[in-house]
Structure formats: C-alpha cells, structure tokens
Design a protein that fits this description.
25% of the residues lie in helices and 29% in strands. It is α/β, with parallel strands linked by helices. It is globular, with a radius of gyration of 19 Å.
Length: 260
C-alpha cells in the first residue's frame, strides 16, 4: 500500500527487499506517482520497469544490490578507485561492477558463471551505457581450465550456493567454462583491486593462484568458513581487516586486505 492511498504490484523479491529496508530503518514510506515508485528514507525508486539506486539503473531490485549500495557491504572509505582497473569475481547481476564504476573505476572485468545472473548483468550494463568500461565474462574461476555444469532450476533470487551436476536434485544444467585467475588477469593492463565473492571458490583461488592474487594492491574477499586462514596467507604483504555486518550465518563475512 502506498502512502498516497494507491497500490503497486511487486514481485516476491522486490517485496522482501522492501521489508528488509524497512527493518533496517532505511525505508519510511512508499509513494506511487503515475505508476512510478519512490521509497522515502531510501535512495531507491522505480520508474516504469527500471529500478534506480543512487542514479544507477537495474532491471530488478535484488537483495545484493541493496547490500552493496545501501548497507556498505563493500566499504571503499580507504580506497581510491579513480582511474583504476578492478577484477570482479562473482559479478552476479553486475551490482558490484556498477558500484565500482560509480566510484570512478576506469574499467571493471566482471566474471560470473551462472547463465541467468550473467544475462541480467548484461542487461544492467546496457541500461547504464557502460559497455566500454565493464567487460563481462560468463565463466567460473578455478585452479585449472575445464568446465562445470551449474543448475539453472532455481529462481535467480533463491541462488545462494550453486548446485553442480551430481550434487543435488536439479533437472536442468548449463555447462560453463572454468578459467584460471591468470586467464582473466590478461584482460587487465594495470590490476589494482580484486573482489572475490564466488560461494566458496575463494579457497581454491587461495590454494592455486596465490602469486597471481598478490599482483593486486587491494583484495576484497567474501569468506564462508572463517577469515583467520585467509589473513594468515596474506599477512606477509597486506594489512587486513574484516567485517560481518549484514551476514547472518556464522563464519561468513568480508576480508579487506590492502598491500602494505
């Protein structure tokens, strides 16, 4: 129900996202004018079929977009991205790539394995006319080249940990290439920052590609089984800190490491 007495039809994820915004104190009222939606107390609005957060356009309003743009999920307070290149591993629907572009990154290489998320990423890149600055790659990152089959049964908003062939009850799979960190480094002229959020593949990257990882000055890494082992591997060259704000599961959070 809108404050002006009207109403607007929302999808399930949009509704749940608004409930979350309200619970976090980031949403006061919903105004509906001419079929558009403005969320008072937030920086979110919908115009026609497009959602806009801080001037950045999205095809859908997803929880991860709110986390990145409104919840400071990836704090950039001590990081200057102006004129820099960023590698975004686990690009999802382009939310973090567009967040980095908004913070003046020169170019972002966004790697996302899930075909449905990748398709929406391309749409969001096109909505914002940044195709020359965001290079999207539909692939998974691993220790060696190959391929995997990813379940495409789940609605996109339900995806947390990907279901792989042989690991669940999915009936439909898409085959996706696996590339190495060295492969995607080839797209960067002067690598500065890497963000890794790949639902557990961070440990494979740490195990197989540490030398390549240390070519970056800044590492944002979302962890799923604690941060101590990650910090231990990086402490020789990096000053690291971590936060768990916005994470509900124990052992999850973000490690931020800056080369010392």
């Amino acid at each position: 129900m809108c404050r002006d007495g009207g109403s607007v039809e929302l999808g399930l994820e949009h509704y749940l996202t608004m409930v979350r915004l309200h619970a976090e104190g980031l949403l006061k009222n919903i105004d509906c004018v001419g079929g558009n939606v403005s969320l008072e107390g937030s920086r979110v609005r919908r115009e026609g079929e497009v959602w806009i957060i801080d001037g950045v356009k999205f095809r859908e309003l997803r929880k991860t977009i709110v986390d990145v743009f409104l919840m400071n999920h990836l704090p950039l307070d001590d990081i200057d991205l102006r004129g820099r290149e960023v590698l975004d591993i686990g690009g999802y629907v382009g939310d973090t790539a567009l967040y980095f572009i908004k913070h003046w990154a020169r170019r972002v290489i966004a790697v996302e394995p899930h075909p449905l998320a990748f398709k929406e990423m391309i749409e969001n890149i096109e909505l914002n006319n940044v195709g020359e600055r965001v290079i999207a790659i539909n692939a998974a990152i691993g220790g060696s080249r190959g391929s995997i089959k990813i379940s495409i049964d789940e609605p996109l908003f339900e995806i947390a940990y990907f279901a792989f062939e042989g690991g669940g009850r999915a009936s439909r799979y898409a085959e996706v290439s696996v590339v190495t960190l060295d492969d995607v480094l080839g797209y960067l002229e002067d690598p500065y920052m890497v963000k890794i959020d790949c639902e557990g593949c961070e440990y494979e990257i740490l195990r197989s590609s540490m030398d390549s990882l240390k070519k970056f000055d800044v590492i944002f890494l979302e962890y799923h089984r604690g941060y101590e082992a990650i910090e231990k591997q990086l402490k020789d060259k990096y000053m690291c800190k971590h936060h768990t704000y916005g994470f509900s599961e124990p052992g999850q959070g973000v490690v931020i490491c800056i080369k010392s």
